[in-house]
Please model this.
Amino acid sequence: MENFNYTDFTLQWHITHRCNLRCKHCYQEDYSAFESSEKINDILEQFCNLLKAYNCRGRLNITGGEPLTHPYLFELLRLAWSKGIKTGVLTNGTLIGEWEARRFRACHVDYVQVSLDGMEKVHDEIRGKGSFEKAVNGIYALKSQGIFTSISFTAQNNNYKELKKLSAFCSYIGADKLWFDRVIIPSEEDTEQLTLSTEIFWKLCKTASHLNKRGRVFCGRALQFIPCKNKLVYHCSAGENLLIVLANGDVMPCRRIPLVIGNIKENDLLTLHKTSPIMNELRAVGIPQGCISCKYASLCRGGSKCVSYAKKGRFDIPDPDCILLHKQKND
Model:
């Protein structure tokens, strides 16, 4: 195990593909897959075996679909906590009331992430009428129980101008953290042209840098550190200390890189992580050639592989939205 020197390892687990919403940018195609409680116990045990083999801490991020549509969610959270694994829940927030928030607290959940894609009008256009009000009520319920509540904003062409207003709103309602990332859609599938151009993404990063100085936006995703001069430089973990398990058993290196490395019903997590050709290829990428001369090269290591793959069909090249790369080409 000398080649796998991890201090922590994250499993993002889509325990169900069922969802009560149909968001415009969603990459979910199947809304039927649903893990049984018996299979869930087996997968959690496999994750524990992986953590033991690598002698590292574990983090379990549970999502869907919409995870609150699964009746075993809270039992899984309690079981993971009993095994010393930190847990987070990624949700649209619309199914959270006082009772659910109390159960999250009882399960010792580390944090809950709620998606908001703008203020009410824009958010509802993307996620469905009434979803904003329900999500905000869910946030209030979480905060009433003292649960760390993170807000996720997916920036796309129809909502990126909302970040400034949303940051003020999130501060007003007492959210603990607001962060944003780019929508990731393969170029050939982006029929509605939701993907941000490099120029717009750079402008958004500059807006975020001003908001970051006021403590309103966390700039910790790929390339956001450049205008923010953030000491926290993002390093893509696809192929390393991250695995995704879908509700049909498929395993992926990253949910936003559409490559399946196997199925948990045929091979265990540890075997797939160690021996998958795709995982080995991702680990072997290193620093892309175009980034070697950059002062951030050893920390950033090329930005987000999923963006490179979505826009260029390769994950062994620099993030195409990197403004430093564009300046370098123009010099």
Summary: Strands lie at 8-14, 57-63, 86-91, 111-115, 149-155, 177-182, 242-245, 250-252, 262-263. The longest helix spans residues 37-54. The mean pLDDT is 92.
